[in-house]
Batch of 4 targets.
Target 1
Amino acid sequence: MASAHILDHPLLQHKVSMIRDKNTGTKEFRELVKEIAMLMVYEVTRDMPLKEVEVETPITTARTKVIAGKMVGIVPVLRAGLGMVEGVLNLIPGAKVGHIGLYRDPETFQAVEYYCKLPVDAEERELIVLDPMLATGGSAADAISLIKKRGCNNIKLVNIIASPEGIEAVRKAHPDVDVYVAAVDEGLNDHAYIVPGLGDAGDRLFGTK
Ligand SMILES: O=P(O)(O)OC[C@H]1O[C@H](OP(=O)(O)OP(=O)(O)O)[C@H](O)[C@@H]1O
Ligand SMILES: O=c1cc[nH]c(=O)[nH]1
Ligand SMILES: [Mg+2]
């Protein structure tokens, strides 16, 4: 069974508090989501394997380490996941980027797929799925199912704010996937929005409401 990891670095907690604030405008919200994604992926990649190499320094030869193992792909769930892409690419510039388009039907809260484009060699990569919000967990679980259908089995999920129900749903559907979150909130309201949450992440990122 994979684990849910709560990333509670003080900088993350501070920045999450700022995006929760309804008075934080679109520009600042976008910048903060980017920074949060960067701080989160720093922790998410902590177990990356290393290999020893030899490097000529200006002084002598050094035996030193570089990243080894699988290459990385990142998969934002449209739209809101897009806000996390730049922050992750700042730290892993060689990552390929796939996209999964899902929206949540406002009546049924079921995820509806409208787009999926993954890197051609996705099954050879470690894939990091990005979405700021994990509410019912339906969108994340469906996104991971789509990725698995393409033969990918090395998947991590990164959400900024999660509900306990969302974490449980993903763990049940995909027990092999580690989930990384910066905050676990109280639960969901009647519209399946996270409480206290931050509202609609996509609308706040793109100024659509
Ligand atoms: O866990 P769930 O209950 O599935 O809800 C979470 C999903 O809802 C939001 O997307 P939304 O449907 O609002 O689409 P958007 O990013 O285009 O606004 C969010 O970014 C997640 O993808
Ligand atoms: O709280 C929520 C739930 C779903 N989608 C969001 O953007 N926010
Ligand atoms: Mg939305």
Note: The mean pLDDT is 96.
Target 2
Amino acid sequence: MIETLAQAGSTNTVLAERLRAGHAIAEGTWLRAERQTAGRGRAGRDWREAEGNLYASTLVHPAGGDPPPHTLSLVAGLAVHDLLMSQLNVPQADPGNYRWLKWPNDLMVDGAKIAGILCERVGDAVIVGVGINVATAPPVADRAVTAIHSANPDNSNTAAVVLSDLARTLAGRLDRWRAEPLSTTLAEWEVRAHPRGAALTVTDGGERIAGAFDGLAPDGALRLALVDGSTRIIHAGDVELET
Ligand SMILES: O=C(O)CCCC[C@@H]1SC[C@@H]2NC(=O)N[C@@H]21
């Protein structure tokens, strides 16, 4: 079920308020805002409002036996990657040619961020908020935005059409997250992300750590190989991909 509001401060906040007010919200429910006036990004940043872009949130109710809830952040990234592969009409059989994921779940196309994901715990639920620049993006990602538009001829409706595709890809990824070993999700994420050895700089609080991507740890944390030969396990932080 997709509910669309003409305007919201933040779709994540609206869903969180409803949960806290005791509403029973089923998995598969999505809330989209045509305009978002107080969008929130990771690390307390704002998420910029631009007309026509996609702003939407859903939620997951992790159950006993599911993989750890924090790994939903990677699952959501995979779902958006699946969506972009279908929107940009690239060969589904070859995801390794489209290394668009940056840990934990930024989507970088042509070096520009085309989508961001904000996962937040509210009680036992995890809210998954997704912003996709389907109408306006940083200039270097214009090619991707143009491709999304040409895949959706009714441009006035692009965000709504893209969201129904995203609802499908996330449902599929959640089914697999529950049914398959977590290592399968992590391996699929790695195929679609910066390659091992890619130079990354991680900022965590005031600390900046430079190193090379050394794959994911078994719990989905980032392994960063440092110049002194040691490995740092990163559970949270901002990652810049050095080019
Ligand atoms: O990359 C990031 O910093 C995450 C951005 C997440 C933005 C989306 S837009 C829909 C949902 N509502 C919010 O306030 N944030 C998320």
Note: The chain has five helices and twelve strands.
Target 3
Amino acid sequence: MKKLAIIGAGDLGQQIAYHAAQDNQFEVVGFFDDFATPNTIINQIKVFGKVEDVENGFTNKLFDEVIIGIGYKHLGFREKLYTSLKAVVPFATFIHSSCYIDASCVVGSGVCIFPGVIIDQQAIIKDNVFINISCTIAHDSIIAQHTFLSPRVAIAGFVNIGKRCNIGINSTIIDNINVADDVQIGAGTVVINQIEKSGLYVGNPSRFIR
Ligand SMILES: CC(=O)SCCNC(=O)CCNC(=O)[C@H](O)C(C)(C)COP(=O)(O)OP(=O)(O)OC[C@H]1O[C@@H](n2cnc3c(N)ncnc32)[C@H](O)[C@@H]1OP(=O)(O)O
């Protein structure tokens, strides 16, 4: 079994650790976190060090693959970590065994897909995307790099979601919609029109608020 290290020892990192181990896909061996004290133990998992220690940790064979547990509040940092580390450490792809991902889908590296997600034919999930529990992504849709989907997001067919988007819980995006980069969508929002500029959108139908 591969040894997994997680960058970020907060709530999201701990959830990833739980699911990756409980699903018997990885031995979760350690966290890297700038705000945790090195060598302390969090939920029985050691804090190996800070983000700057990831490359040395790999060289010293502390882990086989890494994944990022930095969530929707810091998507720019999530991107920065991924782009700076991808050439020097191998990234894991974690898809919980309860998911249905059609065999025709393409799922990138560093992607984390939590329990109960359904992704239909020809969908593309690009690198470093995080997909929370119970999301549904219909056929031919594309989720671009570093984007975060909250629980139970429903995405119809032929949808393109941009980079570093934060899609709120239980939101719905109808078919043939393009969502720009750096868009935040509030909980329960219903997107029925193209979203061409970055910013925060809420409501049914969705409206730009800032
Ligand atoms: C596992 C996990 O937990 S993952 C995380 C899941 N969490 C989420 O998905 C949370 C999503 N967050 C939201 O929906 C938040 O309400 C946000 C981010 C959209 C807005 O939060 P804030 O920046 O605090 O905005 P604020 O509360 O001041 O609202 C601004 C306006 O938008 C409205 N608004 C805010 N959220 C929503 C919403 N989801 N739907 C409709 N209207 C909304 C407010 O009523 C307010 O309207 P007004 O100006 O007419 O009074």
Note: The chain has two domains: 2-85, 94-208.
Target 4
Amino acid sequence: MTNPRQIALIALRDIHAGAYADVALNKVLQKFSLPNLDRGLLTELVYGTVRRQRTLDAIINQLASKKSHQQPKDLRTILHLGLYQLRYQERIPPSAAVNTTVELAKNNGFAGLTGFVNGLLRQYIRLGEKSPEPLKLPENPVQRLGILHSFPDWIIEVWLEQLSWAETEQLCQWMNQTPTIDLRINPLRTTIEEVEEALQSVGILTRRIAHLPQALRLIGNTGAIQNIPGFSQGWWSVQDASAQLVGYLLNPQPGEVVIDACAAPGGKTTHIAELMQDQGKIWAGDRTASRLAKLKENARRLHLQSIHICTGDSRHLPQFYHTGDRVLLDAPCSGLGTLHRHPDARWRQTPESVVELSRLQSQLIANTSKFVKPGGILVYATCTLHPKENEDVISTFLASHPHWQIQPPRVDSPQLAYSTPQGWLKVWPHRENMDGFFMVRLRKTNNSE
Ligand SMILES: C[S@@+](CC[C@H](N)C(=O)[O-])C[C@H]1O[C@@H](n2cnc3c(N)ncnc32)[C@H](O)[C@@H]1O
């Protein structure tokens, strides 16, 4: 099969049945061999329709007599695909979007409904000719933003608690973009200049990122990551700029003992090893063995020797008590700072899952703080923007752990740019053009047991 729209329908069926969007997409990309352009279109259609689902459903609700959720499942997905192309894909002529969608309906058991599909899509085009916004939006301002930018109301509300309306809208728009790829250069194998040159020689454009000495942002489409020069030599890792800030905030030194309590697949563990010149001992703990296998593979590719694996639940592991000079807790979280990378995440997380995660995060910080020696450091980080998983976890921890205090970034450190008056760092993606992140450095006093 070579029709990217038909293949998109197959992947979307899987996603609507519960599969992760990236897993479902990779499955079809591996199964069907497509030319590069069609692979690009397939990826755009799958990720785009998942991301814009709420907006696309609102259009169906407006134009059809039956609500979107009452339509047969496949028909709803086919309409999503057609409407997505009409609304968001300027490169696809409207007539091609309509004809290919009608064809898709015909080939997937809806031969009797091709008139309905054709009519609905053409009605949308006609409305768009009359008004720049064919979609009728509700009066309620939260729902209005949620429908326009395709987010559940509760996420809009979480952002509105922290940002103005205008910034909330900017953040919504930012999260609907195709994500960029950043590299972190491994200074133990090469230099940033050498990587820049190697990439340039194969036509890959890059740019440096302020405050991050080993970071390069890739510009434009680069093809498969494994084919970028230097991958097999361990010259670099893929890691977003804001995730690179975490290693610098921890500031590990050669010869120290560092415990990375939620380490897999090892983006930050390998950064820590590089910052320590691969000298010292790093314990990489995680409860998921399959993810730790990826960490091992990454450490091997980067030629790092100082990393040791420990499979287990970091809410326990008493063998680590009072052994770490520095501990990193890069906690499992709702990922509200990386919604652009995971198009289905906004539909998977709920206010209830956030409460559940914040409970786990509190248990993890309470126990991993015991891993730290007196006078040592613990960095808590998440890639979410929800105060319940960030500020609240830290405030509650500090209130019940008098031997701990926040150690804000030094005035001469690059992280200062993201620092808040409370001493923790919050990276807002629409301001900094990088993934959303929260991180804080905590210090245990010398006289604690
Ligand atoms: C945000 S990810 C870590 C990403 C990693 N630090 C990196 O930079 O590549 C969170 C990790 O926590 C792990 N995890 C979740 N609950 C855990 C627990 N109770 N104990 C140990 N690891 C846990 C998950 O398996 C997941 O790999």
Note: The mean pLDDT is 96.
